[in-house]
Amino acid sequence: VCCAGLACAAAPASTPAHLIARGVTVSGVRVGGMTAVPARDRITASLTSPIQIATPSGVTTIDPARAGAVAEIDAALTGALAAQPGRSLTVPVQYSADRVATIVSDLAATFDKPAVSAAVIGADASGPVFSPAKAGVAVDRRTMGAAIGDLLRSGERTPLTLLTSVVPPRRTAASFGPVIVVNRAANTLRL
Question: How many CB atoms lie within 10 A of CB 97?
Fold first, then answer.
């Protein structure tokens, strides 16, 4: 009887798990009312989810690890456990600007289209005939790099639209300037 009483007295009392205060968010992820482990899992899942970019050929996804993104989840979790109700915290995220630039360069290599200038392709009775000039498209590298960086830092995964600008052709039929048309059969010269 004496041994059983000692065993009960020596057993540790169960301690309630510390809960994050209601309404607390970490990088936009609701973690209020959770304990540390489920909150860490939810934050990690959010920050490691891919960034989506709508392109002319569909949706392209970018894995944050490809940008070298590293999140300080433990620091944010410690802050969340100590936070007052309704507080919003941000996970500190570091990433490689060079890797983001490489990602944007890869997008540009796929979606940039060069402008095509007009050219003289012949002549008819009314004068020179030109091939049509066509505008090109260029990925806005600076803005796309900044937008991807913002999503990596904030933890948001709002889909981006591939930002491009129009590249005008160097020469159009209107800007071609004087053209001399020589008609040997009629022995005529036209400007």
Answer: 11
Which of the 8 DSSP states describes residue 176? Answer: S
| Cα atoms found within 13 Å of the Cα of residue 124, Cβ hemisphere only | 3
Q: Which amino acid belongs to residue 127?
A: G
87-144 residue pLDDT tens: 999 999 999 999 999 999 999 999 999 999 999 888 887 778 899 999 999 999 999 9
Q: Which tokens in the block code for residue 48? A: 């490691």
Task: State how beta strands 88-89 and 25-26 pair.
Answer: parallel
Token couple for 30: 């609701």
- Find where tokens 């992820």 sit: 29
Q: Do 167 and 141 form a contact (C-beta atoms < 8 A)?
A: no
The single-letter code of the amino acid at 73 is I
The position carrying tokens 């960034």 is 51
pLDDT in tens, 40-84: 999 999 999 999 999 999 999 999 999 999 999 999 999 999 999
